[in-house]
Structure formats: structure tokens, C-alpha cells
Amino acid sequence: MKNKNTDTNNLGFSTILGNVSDKNSNGIDYIVQSSTFRLTFSFINLYALIVILLFFIVKGNLVGGIDNNFLDTGFLSVLNARAMLLFLLLISLNITAYFNYGFKYVCLIMLVYMLNSAIDNAVLFSGFMHLTDRPYFSAFNVTRPLFIIALIWLLIIHKDNKKAVKIE
Amino acid sequence: MFKNPQPSKLFWFSMSIAYAFCFSSLYTYATIPEYILELNNTAEIIITMKLATVRLVIVAIALLVYPVILFRFFKYAKYFTVALTAWAVAVYIDDIFVLSEVIQYPESRLISSVQSLRPILIASLLWMSVELVFRPLTAD
Q1: Could you tell me if A126 lies within 8 Å of chain B, comparing CB atoms?
Q2: How many CA atoms lie within 13 A of A23 on its CB side?
Q3: Whole-model pTM?
Q4: Mutation test of the interface with chain B: which of A78, A107, A121, choosing the one with the most B Cβ atoms within 10 A?
Q5: Which of A120, A145, A159 is nearest to A35 (CA)?
Q6: What is the pLDDT of residue A122?
Q7: Which residues in chain B have their CB less than 8 angstroms from residue A116's CB?
Q8: Residue-range domain boundaries for chain A
Q9: A99-112 pLDDT, tens per residue?
């Protein structure tokens, strides 16, 4: 009985000290991803959003220096569809990361999709692409391997095992 | 020791369908008569054939590697199958929705019949992925 009172007093003090959240989280199976994971995940989100933004800039003709013949070759429609698919995959990736269910599979699907689109672009549009003509496109194409490496890294370091790390 | 995976009969059936489709695609594109390409020698068909060649090389590599992964590295078979399924779906979506204005396949009945059977390949691969991911499989 005395012990119970002591525990209640301790809990009261810890509530006052703002320590209650740590006490309550002992039994919850939270998975704490590493800071490298969070950094890489933020990079992937940022990169994908910039690519989608780039599409709208090109589509709206907001940046000068775009070769219209280049866009007439069908690249604009390709870019449109790819931006939409990338956006859907990005949403799926964020949802699976939030619920920590099926993240690796969605990440793998995104990786395959990016590799496939890179191969397609290299085969179909390599004749039209010049690094100096469209620096923003070039920046996107040159940094694409970085995005693919980031996805592979994310796939490797993601912890989906519930016993991996718990908040103590 | 060497471990044999024991998926269901439906898995092996799906796998045989996928293999049959891939081999028929390889055969179709390897034996296109030259006069068909010469008659329709447009820029779209040239880049389509270039793209098809790259894809068929990847298919050939996958056909060789898949049994090795399935029988020797069974732990990674599900990831490899999901990756192949995602690739098949991505290529199908690309051809139908994304690259429809850019590419054009040569006019041949064999090619069009192979193209029309692609959903069957995707369905087979999907079943293989689902079985490997969700069904607990026993091993000898």
C-alpha cells in the first residue's frame, strides 16, 4: 500500500516534470528509423516535388530557352504522364512509410519505375537532349542516378521489424 | 544444404505462362522479316525497335537469373518477382499511356498478338508476387 502511494507520487512528480510521455511510450512498438533514413527520405520527397514543379514550369512555358521542336517530339506528353505517375508513387511511398507497412515493396516499385523511365528516356530522347540547351532538364537527368542510389539506400536501411528498436 | 521451395501448382503454372510469353516475345522480335521494317521505315518504328531490343536484353537476363534466385536465394525471390512485376506493369503503362504518341510497333500479326497477350503475363507475374509475399511457403 505504501509502495502504491509512492508510485502515485512519483507519477505525479513526473507529470509535473513533463516526463510522462516517456513513461507511457515504453510499451508501444514504435519503430525509430535512423537519421540517415529520415534525411534520405526527405531528399527523395524534395527531389520528386522539384521534378513535378519543373514539369509545371516547362508546361506553362514559364522559362525561356525551350526549344519548341523538342517539345513537339512528344516529350511534353511523356513528361506529363511521368510526373503524374511519380506523384502517385510518391504519395504511396509516404503512406507506406507512415504506416510502416509494405514500404520496401513500394520503394522497390518506385526504383524499378525510375530505372525504366531512365532507360526509356536514354533510348528515345538521347538524340534531342543537349546538356547546354536545357540546363534544368540536364540537371534533372544528371542527378537522376543520385535519386536512384538514394532509393536503393532507403530500401536497405529501412527497418520494418517491430523488434528492431523501441523507445525506452 | 540446397533447399527446394514448394510453392503451389498455380505458381508453377503462372511461371510457365510467363516463361512461354517471354520466349515467344524473344522469338517474335528475333525473327521479324526485314521487308516489314523496310516497308515501314519511319522514325517511330526505328526507335521502337531500339527500345524493344533493350527491353528484350533485360528479359533475357531475367529469364536466366530468375531460376537461380528462386532455387538458390529463395529469401530474395519475392523482391525479385515484385521488381519484375513492377517493371512489366511500368512498361505496359508506358506503352499504352505515356509513349503512345512516340512509339509505333511494326505492322505484323505476330507482334500485335504478342502485344495483346501482355495482360496475361502481368496477371501471371502478379499471382507469383502475391503468393511469394503473402503465402507462407515451406521448404524441404
Answers
A1: no
A2: 12
A3: 0.78
A4: A78
A5: A159
A6: 82
A7: 87, 90-91, 94
A8: 1-27, 31-157
A9: 888 898 999 999 99
